[in-house]
């Protein structure tokens, strides 16, 4: 099958409405687990984790009428594949404008796969202080963990093969909200 033919086999996993419902559910689960908003903060991992954190913050504000502390985390310098030299790292700003000591920090990312991004994010986060607790919220958990991380809040679990790519698109970075699965088998 041609390359073009393969790309026609992309599967839509979530449309905009389904993504919105999943984010609303995650926001409610965060509030329930935390018993409200006390000492709660959201930190998004660049890039789409930041968009997820922002949307969760808006949902929580709609529900509780409280604006949570929100931060942005760039994990580039904490990645364990940096030494391979394959890619030139692009550094972007980390912005955590509040003290994380004693906070319950919800770390947000779009897709959980091997766990290596989360390990890097926790390493980066600890350079800012000592939170009381770090929780993990992901839109998609696709399995294949190489490190022992488990999300606390998940929009959708999807079993995938390692040859697949899960692509989250979110307005603010992409033209539309959707999650697609691309099978990269040759």
Provide an overview of this structure.
The protein has 186 residues and is of the alpha/beta class. It has a single domain, classed as Rossmann fold (3-Layer(aba) Sandwich), CATH 3.40.50.2020. Helices cover 28% and strands 27% of the residues. The protein is built from 4 helices and 8 strands; from the N terminus they run αβαβαββαββββ. The protein has helices spanning 3-7, 16-34, 48-64, 116-126, and strands at 11-14, 40-45, 69-73, 104-112, 133-141, 153-157, 164-169, 178-183. The strands form 2 sheets. It has a 5-stranded parallel beta sheet, with helices on both faces. Strand 4, helix 4 and strand 5 (133-141) form a beta-alpha-beta unit. The protein starts with a helix and ends with a strand. Mean pLDDT is 92; it is low at 1-8.
Write the layout of secondary structure elements.
Blueprint: H1 3-7, E1 11-14, H2 16-34, E2 40-45, H3 48-64, E3 69-73, E4 104-112, H4 116-126, E5 133-141, E6 153-157, E7 164-169, E8 178-183
Parallel strand pairs: 2-3, 2-4, 4-5, 5-6
Antiparallel strand pairs: 1-8, 7-8
């Amino acid at each position: 099958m041609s390359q073009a033919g393969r790309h026609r086999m992309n599967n839509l996993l979530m449309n905009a409405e389904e993504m919105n419902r999943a984010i609303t559910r995650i926001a409610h689960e965060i509030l329930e687990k935390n018993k409200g908003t006390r000492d709660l903060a959201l930190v998004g991992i660049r890039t789409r984790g930041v968009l997820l954190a922002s949307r969760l913050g808006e949902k929580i504000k709609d529900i509780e009428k409280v604006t949570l502390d929100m931060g942005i985390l760039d994990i580039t310098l904490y990645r364990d594949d940096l030494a391979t030299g394959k890619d030139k790292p692009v550094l972007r700003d980390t912005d955590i404008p509040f003290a994380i000591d004693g906070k319950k920090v919800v770390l947000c990312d779009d897709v959980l796969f091997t766990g290596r991004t989360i390990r890097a994010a926790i390493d980066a986060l600890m350079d800012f202080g000592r939170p009381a607790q770090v929780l993990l919220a992901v839109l998609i958990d696709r399995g294949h963990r190489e490190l022992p991380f488990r999300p606390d809040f998940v929009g959708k679990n999807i079993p995938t093969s390692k040859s697949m790519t899960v692509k989250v698109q979110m307005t603010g970075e992409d033209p539309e909200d959707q999650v697609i699965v691309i099978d990269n088998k040759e």
